[in-house]
Amino acid sequence: MVHEITSGADFNTYLEQSEDKLLVIDFFATWCPPCKAIAPYFGQLAETHGAKANFIKVDVDQHGQLAQAFGVRAMPTFVFIKNKKKIADVRGANPKAIEATLVQNL
Fold first, then answer.
1. Which of 85, 88, 91, 92 is the most exposed place for a label (fewest CB within 10 A)?
2. 35 is catalytic
């Protein structure tokens, strides 16, 4: 299941859990066609790998400070966090790169 972040505190809850599980963040915008196109695929990854990783979505227009903190400059951007640290990112709606990065870091 993909959880959409509603606040900074909500985000911090998932960040704390990254000590035990990989955290995969989809930084998206509601007006972004590639973001809409990749969303079902991101949901499928969450269903398949949800036991080993948490999957969250962050709307860059509502949470610009988070996007800025992670260096997001294009949407969508997928950020991978382990032990509260960014370990990788994938820019753009590239399913093969997203899955390869996910599997490599599980």
1. 85
2. yes
